[in-house]
C-alpha cells in the first residue's frame, strides 16, 4: 500500500542547508517527551569543505514586551536544551532511525544526514500570552525551535545566511481516564442571625475538551433568614508565570449571571444547572489570555491545563495554566456573598494512532517554509 506522509522543509537563505522534519508537535508524556527527529541535506560545496554543521533545540522564554526593551534591557532568555554536531558525524551517539528518517535518507541522497534530539520532561510547555490589539512584536510566552547552522563550534556566532530555524511545539494531551467527579459543599453563617446558607456545586466530569460545554449543577439550601438575590457562575483561567514570585493572575473566560429562581427566601431550596463553554472566541481581544503555543499560519486555542508529575517539577522559565469553575451567591449589601470553586482539566484528546506502512514507493508531501529576510551584512 502506497502512503503519502507529510514532511516540513525549510532552507537556509544561502541555499546550502535544507532541514526536513516529519512533524512539528512533540508530545510530553510527563515521564518522557517524544524525540525530535529530522534530516538535513547539505550542499556539495559544504560537504567537500567538511564544514561543521551543528543542530540545537532552543527554548525561548519572553517574559516582557518587546517594545519595552530600551537602554539595553532584554526581556527574553534562550535555553539550549540539546546541542550536537551533525556533520561531520562525531560518532558519539548512534541512535536508531525512525521510519520517516530512513525513507527520507533513501530519497534525499548521499548528502542527507539524520539527527535526533531529546527534550527534558521538566522543560516547560509551549504557551503564549495573547497580546492586546494595539501591541506589536513577539508575544510573551514559551516557544521552541530547531536551529541548524554552520560554524566552527556549538558556541560559535551564527550567521543568518547559513542558519535554518523551524518552530516546533511541546504539547500535552488529555489522559485516557477521567478523574474523580468534582464536588464541593460550602456553608455560610451570619453574626447575630440563626441558621446558615448551604451551596453544593458539582461538575458532570473532571476532564473536558476544548469548546465543550461544562454543566454546573447547583443545589442551594437556605436555612438562614437571609435572601439570595442572584447567582453568578464563571470559568476562570489561572496563569502562573513561574519566574516571578507575584506572577499569578486569573482571567474570566466565560461567565453567566442569573436571577432565575431568585429571590431565594429563607427556608427555601433551589436546584439548578448552568451551562458555560470556555472558548477563545469570547476573549479574542483580551490581553494576557494564555494560548497553546502558536505556529505561524496555524490557528490556536485556549492553553490546555498544564500537567505536572509533581508540584516540585515547575521549571523556572515556564508558564503553568489551570482552570476552575467559580460560583457566587449574592445576598445583598448587608448579607455579603457565598463563593465555591471547583478545579477541572481542559485539554485536547490524544489523536487516534493510524498505522501507516511507509514503503519504497511512498510519496512525501512536502510543506516548504520561507526563511525570514536576512541582513545584507551577514556573510557565510
Structure, described:
- With 380 residues, the chain is mainly beta.
- It is 5% helix and 44% strand.
- It has three helices and 21 strands.
- The protein has helices spanning 44-48, 99-108, 332-335, and strands spanning 4-11, 17-21, 25-27, 36-42, 53-62, 76-87, 112-117, 127-129, 141-150, 163-171, 183-190, 193-203, 207-209, 214-222, 230-241, 248-258, 269-276, 290-292, 319-330, 337-347, 363-369.
- It is elongated, with a radius of gyration of 26 Å.
Can you give me a brief rundown of this structure?
By secondary structure, the protein is mainly beta.
- What number is the mean pLDDT? 86
Q: Report the CATH topology name of the largest domain.
A: Immunoglobulin-like
Share in β-strands: 35-45%
> How far is it from the N-terminal to the C-terminal residue, by CA?
44 Å
Radius of gyration, whole Å: 26 Å
Low-confidence stretches: 354-361, 372-380
Q: Please state the second-level CATH architecture of the largest domain.
A: Sandwich
What is the CATH class of the largest domain?
Mainly Beta
How do the helices and strands follow one another from N- to C-terminus?
EEEEHEEHEEEEEEEEEEEEEHEE
Largest sheet: 7 strands, mixed
Number of domains: 2
- Given the structure, what is the number of helices? 3
Shape: elongated
| Helical amount | under 10%
InterPro entries: Arrestin, Arrestin-like_C, Arrestin-like_N, Arrestin_C-like, Arrestin_CS, Arrestin_N, Ig_E-set
GO biological process, one term: G protein-coupled receptor internalization
Domain Arrestin C-terminal-like: 193-351
Keywords: Sensory transduction, Vision
